TrEMBL record:
Keywords: Endoplasmic reticulum, Glycosyltransferase, Membrane, Signal-anchor, Transferase, Transmembrane, Transmembrane helix. It holds the Pfam family Glycos_transf_2. The lineage of its organism: Eukaryota, Fungi, Dikarya, Ascomycota, Saccharomycotina. It is an enzyme of class 2 (transferase). The keyword Nucleotidyltransferase does not apply. Its EC number is 2.4.1.117. It is found in: Endoplasmic reticulum membrane. Pathway: Protein modification; protein glycosylation. The keyword Oxidoreductase does not apply. One of its GO terms (molecular function) is dolichyl-phosphate beta-glucosyltransferase activity. Belongs to the glycosyltransferase 2 family. This is dolichyl-phosphate beta-glucosyltransferase. One of its GO terms (biological process) is protein N-linked glycosylation. CDD domains: DPG_synthase. It comes from Saccharomyces arboricola (strain H-6 / AS 2.3317 / CBS 10644).
Amino acid sequence: MVALRFLIENRNTVCFTFLVALVLSLYLLVYLFSHTPRPPYPEELRYTAIDESGVEITRALPNVGEAQKMDDDEEIILSVVIPSYNETGRILLMLTDAINFLKEKYGSKWEIVIVDDGSTDNTTQYCLKICREEFKLDYRQFRIIKFSQNRGKGGAVRQGFLHIRGKYGLFADADGASNFSDVAKLIEAVQTCEVSSRGVEAVKPVVAIGSRAHMVNTEAVIKRSMIRNCLMYGFHTLVFIFGIRTIKDTQCGFKLFNKPAILKIFPYLHTEGWIFDVEILILAIRKRIQIKEIPISWHEVDGSKMALAIDSIKMARDLVIIRMAYLLGIYRDDRKC
Ligand SMILES: Nc1nc2c(ncn2[C@@H]2O[C@H](COP(=O)(O)OP(=O)(O)OP(=O)(O)O)[C@@H](O)[C@H]2O)c(=O)[nH]1
Ligand SMILES: [Mg+2]
């Protein structure tokens, strides 16, 4: 009775205290679940490749801001980052498709950077072997960064993008679910938007993302399991609620960035798990970077690394955390992480 009277008499103070406690608990909760990429181990700042005489070498990685050119002064137009986790079974087809296209289109002005994310199936050794025997490529075109511990797809893509040399950077899944030649469409889309009225010195940052939104009612999606499609719709709804309203397909593993966009996005990326695509888009939107969504071809490939139930829960949680962390100032888009 006394307590009730106290509450009624001091209701303004009580409400205020309750509100402060709520905000503090929310802040604490988001802070606890928020993410900072772990600093790379020294060996993760080196790449492994094959030299001109076929010998395996390890060298320091260049940094994206510094390295504009190849060692022999030839400019790299396109760098392709392939996050790879236990991909010995799938990567050969993808690489064959990519390398054939790159050779024909860009001669030698391209590079592939595979980021082996702590695989346990010898992905690195397998890739070095096919690089030497099948593709006959040396360190100028083909590099591997090997993580000693798994970080997640976002961590792998981030590390790759911080050390590429190309004018444009693409990340592409190792399963070859997209047609690699569609990269030409993405580059064209970026090139039409990046020209600044202030001349070549001031190229505008632009991102072009592959999109499967046009395929929602096609065989490729319908053939997927019902649970998978339900989770997909649930995820789209959550992405919509939590702020990305203009992009239909946030998750496609085929995204292209020009160098100014790479420098404005990747050093600031916190998320190392599957949901990193959404943080990339949030950063691009916050920094007013133009995003072009381009329909691409795509087909289902067996051997997905996603654990449907557990990864979906983690993605939903991380999506909420990213949004709240930016809202509460725990993540900042002007502070490199
Ligand atoms: N770096 C890293 N990459 C991963 C990890 N798991 C998967 N990948 C890579 O992420 C890419 C996409 O993985 P998939 O298993 O095809 O998953 P997905 O394309 O999102 O989903 P599906 O539509 O089921 O294929 C591949 O290149 C994988 O090797 C991981 O833990 N770390
Ligand atoms: Mg896939």
